[in-house]
Amino acid sequence: MAGRADEGPHTQQPRDSDTTWAEQLLDHLRPAGRDPRRVVTWLGRTVGATVCLQDTHGGLLAGERLPLDTAVLADVVTGRISAAALEDGERHVRMVGIRDPERGPAAGAVLAVARRDPFDRRAAEIVNRTASVLELLLRERKLTDDGHRLRRATADLRLAILQLLMVEDTVSARRVAAGLWPGLLEEDTACVYVVEVSPAERDALADACAHITEGLALVVRCPAVDGHVIVVGPRPAAGDRLRSLVDGRPGTFLGGSLRQRLARTATAYGQAVSALAVARFRPDQTAVYAERTHPERLMDPVALRAWSAGVLRPLDRLPHHVRAELLATTRLGLEFTAVAAAKVLGVSRNTVRARMDRVEALLGTDFSHLTTRAAVRLALNSEAVQGPYDPDGTAAPAASGRLGDLLGSAALRAWARDLLGRLDADGRDLRGTLRAWIAADSNAERTARDLGVHAQTVRDHVRAAEPVLERQLLAMGSDLYEVVLAHLATGALAAPVVGQANPGQPDSPVHE
């Protein structure tokens, strides 16, 4: 086989009178036709040859694989020669290096063209010009791929920051954020917003949220719900800008939290999701968590704090970071499914369940009972709002009282009667079905057996109660727990007993 170095892809060649091929080649640079595989197919058809486009490692990018002289190929790949023409008696081969600016003189890919007839001036020019077009297309593809990787890395980084905030690790969250978004988390407080749209529109909505907040907020595609975008806005302007984004946009809803400490991001997230449920029934498609009365606000704050401290006391001997991790996971696990909580926290669902099992065992409770879950969530939220009862471990234990005492205030009972009384206007006894469904721990089949109706009837009744109560029930979470507390306050359901440590646990405070 004989070979010689040949001109590179950018060497000027005499123009052929037939310029049709040039016009066709330029058509491949139009936005709708930028595909190296189509260019290779066109080249093979135009010069009557077999064409191979491969990367520098021999991977086939387009066309058909060709046996090539390894020594000459190595020279083209390394940049020692930019192109070569070979003849082996039966075929004529041209190899052209496709430049990659990041590799210096070395090629980023190799275009090889083989045919039986020798390459005349026209065919040689077509090959060289095609190599120039492929260089542009491959460079564009690389830039596009780099852009996608950068966007994914940035999105992963935003999610990592959110997950650190969810477990109250604000120090690490600030360190991670400081590199790309200096000053983003310099405030000690923030509001959390959840924007909902169809999953197909979620990416465009996330970009719109990032654009309209102008770097003033942490924008994250929710890892648990495909149609949700989570926005952590340390500055007040973020909320106004998001509301303007939702305004007049069909099928888009916005729920916002109260302003919370960064360490309470998980609590704020739950509030935003709760507000989102209300936003679905609002004409302006937005809602803020503070817009309605919540049962804990109608309880004696001193008694509530003491009771919560008593419920959570079995966790007080754990190391601070372990306690914070368990509580953050349990808060999310009580609001959402284990799978959804795991996605938000960036851990496995087995890890979520193991942490919750540990809390369940330490508190001596059974999270399979809906009333117990509501009571424990009340204690967790009380501590999140008011802080640990005795963070230094120096105060004398307070008399924690009973949950029934907390639920006995006149204001709370009046709120509960008013809330549940909204259901009485419906002739289907929604109130009775809802009470039985809660007593059956939200199991529709068990409720149906207790009431002697079909399970679908139970679901239909519970679903019909949602717009009346302006609360999401079938999805579980904070809305449902408020309705559970309303049933406990009216005496429709018995208050559970929580807060008794399990002495069998090695890290229980009563274990010696």
Secondary-structure blueprint of this entry?
Layout: E1 2-5, H1 20-27, H2 36-47, E2 50-55, E3 60-63, H3 70-78, E4 83-87, E5 92-99, E6 107-115, H4 121-166, H5 170-180, E7 189-196, H6 202-213, E8 218-221, E9 228-233, H7 237-246, E10 253-256, E11 260-261, H8 265-279, E12 286-288, H9 301-312, H10 320-335, H11 338-345, H12 349-363, H13 370-386, H14 403-406, H15 410-421, H16 430-439, H17 444-451, H18 455-469, H19 478-490
Parallel strand pairs: 10-12
Antiparallel strand pairs: 1-4, 2-3, 2-6, 4-5, 5-6, 7-9, 7-10, 7-11, 8-9
Query: How much beta, percentage-wise?
Result: 5-15%
Mean pLDDT score: 85
Shape by Cα distribution = elongated
Strands, total number: 12
Assign the structural class, choosing from mainly alpha, mainly beta, alpha/beta, alpha+beta, or little secondary structure. Answer: alpha+beta
Question: Segments where pLDDT lies below 50 for 5+ residues?
Answer: 1-17, 394-399, 508-512
Number of helices: 19
Largest sheet: 6 strands, antiparallel
Q: Alpha-carbon distance between the termini?
A: 87 Å
Main β-sheet, spatial strand arrangement:
1-4-5-6-2-3
Q: Helix proportion of residues, in percent?
A: 40-55%
Our Rg estimate from Cα atoms comes to: 33 Å
